[in-house]
Design brief:
The protein is an all-alpha fold. The protein has one domain. The protein is built from 8 helices and no strands. Helix 1 runs antiparallel to helix 8, helix 4 packs antiparallel against helix 6 and helix 4 packs antiparallel against helix 8. Keywords: Membrane, Transmembrane, Transmembrane helix.
């Protein structure tokens, strides 16, 4: 066999190898895209359930606030009002997240999909912050004027410690719940589960697809 034939055979083999590698990458991208869609879809049931429970809860509290407005303690009205307001805000964010999940299209440019998932991540952090802001009002809704007029010093101290502790915890969590602390044990404890894990896995897989496409572009450019 002449040298020219060997070179031709080598080029033919090299071309087939490149085609196989390209096909394998495309298949890997397709499989990865399916996984991402599966991860995102797994987040929907919990969010829908949370929205339904949230709507039922705020409906009940709103009815109570309306019916008890003239007779209830101001502490109850203010505490319940703050709680239901934050819950409504959380429901709105969950609805927004469902829309985002529906809008994520793996076939669109990777940057666009990454942007939507980044918004999902950011809104998940924000909704958790808002929900933790409710902590103090769970220690004040049962207060009454009689309690403060006729209570003992011990009662005042205990209540101040409880409410103050919950308020400090709420403020601390609001300030510290951010992605920069995602490696902390307390953060993972709060966010572990269907609300967070599929999101992070989707981000990682999207990054892999981005790398696959960059490798393909670089290889094609070098040919």
């Amino acid at each position: 066999m002449e040298d020219r034939d060997l070179v031709s055979l080598w080029k033919s083999y090299d071309k087939k190898l490149e085609e196989n590698l390209l096909l394998n990458r495309k298949n890997l991208e397709a499989i990865t895209s399916i996984k991402i869609q599966s991860f995102l879809a797994s987040m929907k049931p919990m969010k829908i359930f949370t929205i339904i429970i949230g709507i039922l809860w705020v409906s009940v509290v709103d009815v109570l606030l309306i019916n008890l407005y003239t007779i209830a303690s101001p502490f109850f009205l203010i505490s319940a009002g703050i709680q239901v307001l934050l819950t409504k805000l959380a429901i709105g964010i969950y609805v927004y997240q469902l829309i985002l999940i529906q809008l994520v299209d793996i076939n669109e440019p990777i940057v666009a999909a990454q942007e939507k998932i980044a918004k999902l991540k950011s809104s998940t952090i924000w909704v958790t912050r808002f929900l933790f802001l409710q902590l103090p009002v769970w220690t004040t809704f049962y207060w009454t004027e009689s309690m403060w007029k006729n209570g003992s010093i011990a009662l005042y101290l205990i209540q101040a410690i409880i409410t103050g502790s919950f308020a400090l915890l709420a403020v601390w969590l609001f300030r510290n719940i951010n992605y920069a602390n995602s490696d902390k044990k307390w953060f993972r404890l709060i966010f572990a589960g269907k609300e967070w894990d599929p999101l992070i896995k989707s981000m990682e897989l999207l990054s892999q697809i981005h790398d696959y496409k960059n490798e393909t572009i670089n290889e094609n450019a070098s040919l």
